[in-house]
Amino acid sequence: MSEEKAILTIGDKQIELPVYTGTEGERAVDISKLYEEHGLMTFDPSLANTGLCRSTITFIDGEQGILRYRGIPLEEFANSKPNFIEVAWLLIFGTLPKEQEILDFRQMLTERALLHEGIRQHIELMPQGAPPMAILSAGINKMVCYYKRFLTLDDDDQFADAAAQLISQIRTIAAHSYRRSQGLPVMYPDPAMRYCANFLHMMFSLPYRQYEVAPEIEDAMNLLLILHADHEQNCSTATVRVVGSAQANLFASCASGVSALWGPLHGGANVKVMEMLESIYQGGLSPEECLEAAKDKANPFKLFGFGHRVYKNYDPRAKILKDSCDRVFAILKQKDPLLDVARKLEELALKDQYFIDRKLYPNVDFYSGILLRAIGIPTNMFTVLFAIGRLPGWIAHWKEQHDNPTRRIIRPRQLYVGNNQSHYVPVEER
Ligand code: SDX
Fold first, then answer.
1. Residue 308 Cα, ligand 1 centroid: separation in angstroms?
2. What confidence score (pLDDT) does residue 284 get?
3. I need a labelling partner for 115 at 20 to 30 A (CA). Which of 9, 223, 303, 341 fits?
């Protein structure tokens, strides 16, 4: 129950509104009865000032650059031996899994890794240059065509079954789509391998030569997926909630999340960052010209990988990724000139008044591509890897909303600014 009140004065009317305070002190004015009781709506086109729900999954403090999964700081997952499946469990089921819970979940993933031949054949029929995100979204939706039991999830066991199916098979669909794009035969999942190693095996092994997964690469892959696992009400997660609020099934809701993530202002930015860095490196724009283009309002160019709706400080994920690049390159005895380009660009931007005034810092996408490239992931698969990482977050938010007894369909209002009433005119009189 809210103690604090806000007063909205409009005309000679004063409307009292409840004010709620979140666990970390953020405050929200409850306007949920405003239209029903006063015929008034608020106006917030990008929902930047609007809380969609109460959630216990992820906390972000954009001013401080804080990100916590179920209260645990992101950095603590990066320091220990990164284990994506452990984090997926934490986000979805709310607690750190016990040893047996991890073993059981891992077994569920192993048993569900193989695609139905119908889905595999559908991927085979895709044109070779088909966008991987289109294949991924279609593949996730298609699962319910072959596994009708997932259309309605009536209890926790059915939900866990569906979650394991999605998390396991998103990886297989992604790898198969990559193999299709390379004109290579698919590699089937190896039940002896753990999550990330199995994905890399399906991506890079050949029928006559097993891809040897270096432990450091497997760790880097786990870390990358952990860093992308959830981010409260970002565009794609909010999309999953909107679609799920209509009681659409979990697979249709997550497939819609893939579509939203594809956008270059969201998950698609990691591809745009690499194209930007590559063009600077190849002697296109200089870093300085890049910044000027990004600041020019007449120029649609943005400094991809910079800026964030919530972070007005350094994205903690970007910090971890930047440090990981150094570590992985040292281990692999590799260098990537694009890392030097990225560093130069960051250095210039962080000193530039335009970026300082707008609190524009590197976000998760600025360095992720360099690490993905070091692992051997091709650029056109970067956003697919983002989706593999983000899937547990989508599932967790879908479940949190699904389990909420007061849930309602999400249906915003609008401010109509079109024609007043007019009348139909027959075509011969127009
Ligand atoms: C992700 O929401 C999430 O949590 C997303 C995400 C997640 O984990 O789910 O963190 C993942 O999507 C990260 C963001 C990836 N996108 C990009 O890197 C694309 C480049 N960034 C921008 O498009 C932008 O910063 C957004 C989309 C990320 C945020 O957009 P907002 O909040 O609507 O900010 P805005 O466009 O209103 O920008 C405010 C000002 C504007 O200038 P003014 O009108 O005040 O003069 O900052 C400028 C913008 O033009 N600006 C940029 C810029 N980002 C903002 N100018 C140049 N380059 C940029 N990158």
1. 5
2. 84
3. 223
